[in-house]
Specification:
Length: 187
C-alpha cells in the first residue's frame, strides 16, 4: 500500500474533527444535566412514546444510508438515488416525530421554556433540539448530494462526498441512540 493510499482524505478528516467537537458539546450538555438534576426543584419525566418511534425511524435510516453508499460504490445509480431519497425522507420523518414529542410534553403540562418551565425540561429541549438541528443539517447535505446525482454535467463516481455524508449520518443516528438511552436511564 502506498503512502498516498494510507492518508485520510481531507474531507473525511474534517468530518471526524467536526464529530469530535459535537461529541464534546453533547458530552458537556449531558454532564451538566447530571450535575443539575441533584438540585432542588428538578422534575423527573418520561419520554413520550413518539420518541421510541423516532428512534426506530433513525435506525432504519442508517440502514438505508448504508445501502445507498453500497449502491453508489457498485455504480447502481438508480438504487443509490432511491436509498438516498428514502434516507432523506426518514430524516424528515424523524424531525417531525421529535417536534411532535415536544408538543406532547407541552400537552402534559411540561413547559420547556419561559414562566412555569423546569430546568429538566429545558435541558431536554436544548439537548434534543440541538440534535434535531444536526439531523436537519444532515438532511440538507443528503439533498445537496442527491441533487448532484441528477446534474447535467459528467457524473463523477467519486465516493468521498457520499462517504462523508454517510459518516455524518451514522454519527447523528448513534448520537440520538445515546441521548435516548441517556434520558431513559435517568428517569
Amino acid at each position: 500500500m502506498s503512502v498516498q493510499q494510507k492518508k485520510i482524505h481531507p474531507y473525511k478528516f474534517n468530518m471526524w474533527l467536526a464529530i469530535a467537537a459535537m461529541i464534546m458539546m453533547f458530552a458537556g450538555l449531558t454532564s451538566a444535566y447530571i450535575v443539575k438534576r441533584s438540585q432542588p426543584g428538578w422534575e423527573s419525566f418520561s419520554l413520550p412514546s413518539v420518541f421510541s418511534y423516532s428512534t426506530a425511524i433513525i435506525l432504519v435510516s442508517s440502514v438505508t444510508m448504508q445501502m445507498a453508499l453500497k449502491a453508489f460504490k457498485d455504480h447502481r445509480m438508480s438504487r443509490y438515488r432511491l436509498y438516498f431519497a428514502i434516507t432523506a425522507f426518514l430524516g424528515v420523518v424523524f424531525v417531525v416525530l421529535q417536534i411532535n414529542g415536544f408538543y406532547q410534553f407541552e400537552r402534559l403540562g411540561m413547559r420547556m421554556t419561559g414562566i412555569g418551565s423546569n430546568a429538566a425540561n429545558s435541558f431536554v429541549l436544548a439537548i434534543a433540539g440541538l440534535h434535531i438541528l444536526h439531523v436537519l443539517g444532515g438532511v440538507i447535505a443528503l439533498l445537496v448530494i442527491f441533487l448532484k446525482a441528477f446534474g447535467a454535467r459528467k457524473r463523477s463516481y467519486d465516493s468521498i462526498p457520499v462517504e462523508v455524508v454517510s459518516i455524518y449520518w451514522h454519527f447523528v443516528d448513534i448520537l440520538w441512540v445515546y441521548i435516548f438511552i441517556f434520558f431513559h436511564l435517568l428517569h
